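Quick start: what a row looks like.
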Amino acid sequence: MSAVEVTRIEPLREAPVVTLRPPGSKSITNRALLCASLAEGSSTLRGALFAQDTRAMMDAVSALGARLRADQETRTVEVLGSGRRRSAQPLRIDARQSGTTSRFILPAAALGTARVTVDGAPQLRARPFAPLIEALEQLGVRVEFLAEPGCLPVAVCGPARGGEVRLAGHISSQFLSGLLMAAPLMDRGLRVELASPLVSVPYVTMTLAVMEAFGVAADGLAVEPSSYVPTELEIEPDASAAAYFFAAAAISGGRITVEGLGADSLQGDVAFVDVLERMGARVERQADAITVCGTGTLHGVEVDMADISDTAQTLAAVAVFADTPTRVDGIGFIRGKESDRIGALATELARAGIDVATDEDGFTVTPGTVRPTRFRTYDDHRMAMSLALLGLRAPGIEIEDPACVAKTYPDFFADLASLHES
């Protein structure tokens, strides 16, 4: 049995004053890759993220017929889209651990008549897919489960004819985003009726904005038959990644500026800084940058994070250093992400001496003194990055399996270490 890789986080000796630019948005990159692949002609994506999740999408759209030329050094991807052309040969797509890739590519794969099998890593096979599969069946797609019903691997065979569909919205907004992006190429377009309240609404807003950048305008959750137009798109830094550094400023009393991410960002996770502001940090918002300044005082808050759930663990790390408890609601669905992000968070913080009370919809963090701890990460990139923040203030913090951050932010620990160099 091989030894577990571990990285130690060194506490900051002084408050950092840093300006940085995290890698491109995973959410925008994967949406843009899919829309570009469905266009007829050549698109250029600048500032794209190169990480495991986006490489999974690059391979997926290539399998469906797009031709890609990617340059990691310049963070540029040129995509020659295949439009409506589809191979008649059976295909198999490996989405690895990428929820966005698997849930976006299934509707796109169902546009053609070929049998397309979508599979992924064991972690992804454990995540729910039933609402998306049920919606595709309503649209005339033949579906074959190859293991457990409602889970990957699954084979689909279209074409998806379009029309009206009912979709559950309370599990993941990715189901809706995937359907909407495939909708212009359905003969009857698409009109979606939500059967339950939608979580992560800003991500659907982002989907519609990326579609519009490629020439397709939706009317609410209705999309008429049309065609994507090739385009050049500049992808902004990832707001979820930026949140770790905004949090670092808040807990260290430092001043950290993220360039390329402004108050008018497409990404809902920029609202994380609003929560930090409520806790006592000072926030400066500009058209092309956001700065968070720690003030030395943090107060607990009560906050619904249903729309910014990818930053919930990050907030928990900040809450440890507040002067009163912090309550987070609206995030019960994150138990079905890469890990049970509520249960895993509570378990790991408890090992560090921090009390976290959990329930069906969220958690409450009671501030305390952090003990030296080697944190398990559950093969979840967000567990690793959020728990690492504790080590900026508390000695003796180690992170197991740090390489799991390659899913979305391969250089995270190098960028975190750069805070010591300010």
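That is the whole record. The mean pLDDT is 96. The longest strand covers residues 40-46.
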